[in-house]
Amino acid sequence: MRPACMKLAKTLLVALAFTAFPAWSAETRDPDEHFFALNTGDFKAEAADARRAGKKAIMVMFEQDGCPGCFYMRHNVLNRVDVQKFYDQNFANFSLNIYGSIPIRDFAGRNFTEKSFSKSVDIIGTPTFLFYDLDGKEAMRFVGPLKEVSDFMLLGQFVASGAYKTSQFAEYKQQRTKKKGS
Description:
This protein is α+β, with helices and mostly antiparallel strands. It is about 45% helix and about 15% strand.
């Protein structure tokens, strides 16, 4: 085999290993069973339940079939037990398919399908993580996958701490990175 072919074969083998075993040092579980709550289809009722449970906000992941970023998040971040525990402690977490036809009721009691609700809140790409305060007002929006587990955890800390009210996520992340390096 030629050296260039050997190098490509090794690269593919390493990539396959990381795909097959994405979190070697972290325990993982199915995000559908352990990250996302079963959606009753009524966000106003979900917010009331979240308030009673002491949660900080509602987090909705807008996704679609075939979305590489959504796949990455589900298989490398949302499947981690440490992520699941933190997000479950602080948020009611839901998933919506931006092309789905499942009926839902928004925080104001208006009826939608997943698709029409996604359009009504201007979802332009997937995955989009939209955090709502418990009164149903948008608190934070992040579009795209977060490749690092630590960044997704930091995003959750940003919202749970209320820092989103006075700063931008990029500023918050930069401040936290400086503190770690200090």
